Amino acid sequence: MQNQGSLGPTTVAELLQTMQQERATGTLSLASNGNKVDLHFLFGHLFHAVGSGSEGEPAVIDALSWQDGEYNFNPRAKLPPEETINSSTEDLLTLWRKGPEGSATASPSEVKVTVAAAAVTSAGNGSGEDDLSSDEDDWLESVGTAEIEAEVDEPADIPTFQAPVPPSVAPAKAFAKAPSSSTPTPASSPNPRTSAAPTAWPASRKPGAGSVPAAEGRSSAIPAAADSGQPPRPVAGATRSQLSLVIPMPSGSSLHSGLKASFLNFPMLLKTLSQDGFSGYVSIRGEKDERNVGHILFREGAILQAQQRVGGSYRRSKAALQEIVRGVAAGEGLIDAIELPADLVGSVSGLIVANTLFLQLPSRIVDFDALVEFVEEQPLSGGILVTTGPDQVSVVLLGEGRPKGSYSSATPELTEGTGVASASCAERDARIDVVAAPSGPAPVIELAEIG
Length: 451
Known about the structure:
It is a single chain. Among the domains are: 4-122, no CATH class; 150-159 and 246-342, no CATH class. It is 21% helix and 25% strand. It has eleven helices and 19 strands. The strands form five sheets. Strands 9-14-10-11-12-13 form a six-stranded antiparallel sheet, sandwiched between helices. A five-stranded antiparallel sheet has the order 15-19-16-17-18. Helix 2 packs across helix 3 (89-98). It is elongated.
């Protein structure tokens, strides 16, 4: 189908059928005698329509009666999150032909068609796959759910790690908040990159001052899930020195928002983003349980990293991407695509697989500014994470020791300096992790490995 043309020789019904056959993605907007209607497609599926005073199927039925005019198709626009049409194109055409609006004698009207298209193009249109249906079962059959599941096996190259039970007595030390304005000085200079356990630092005290109470001076060496004495659930792809928490994503420019997995060809979406050289991340959040979340990070079309949490279990890298694909193929999740600068994507992806240098330091006994100063002297590439509660994490991104900016789950806008994370340290129960990103070029995850 041409991107623009006239409705004289081509009817609106023919345009809808062509969009479906070509699995086109975009927004088709028609106007006639002051009336307008926008038709939104995703891989040939008409899922939303809004006109002058009407929306959904009535807006489509009305537009089908327009017999002349013009149209323009641009396959690179943002799709809306609304879904107002559940009928297939064939059902809509049948309904239109049965109604008085579908009479061939309907008076012609001047029509103007504008198209605002989605960034997802209809790549691979000639694959011969069946068209998407509004019926979820038909759709799952058309994209070959069984085939996807057959290709995606359990990861064999990523070990499962069982975090250790905390030692009975482990008086940990940290950067203590100095009672005066002086900067705390470590008693020794161990190499935190090679230490088997988080590096310990003495607490600064005034001469004669009492020691820090054991309850406040102790820092857990494992994730908080094990504080109760029960070992946490196995973590796919984790090691003894890696965190098992969801790294929050910074805000960016929204490319797609609220796409429903129930009618989305997810493998084609990933392939199209890769072909377009996309930099940013795809976010998948559960419709039934918002605590289920996943992220796929792209840099210039390459998948750098992925993370996923479902039912309390955390996965990263290839294991996470495999489970995300499975979940979306089952029709679960709302999907967003957010654009970010390529260098920012690289910094954030490094946090997902970073090694811990300092783990679960209590903020109330740590001088945060002194900690930042120490990190700057290393120099360290990675980040400082401040956790204040479930899914409440603040991040300081570090590049060779220098802060690139900070943001948090609650305030995802990246700001200069460390202020966002520093403010989170005011929470009494806040915990601080310092992590170092792997050195060298980041490996990529090939889509061919996922299926």
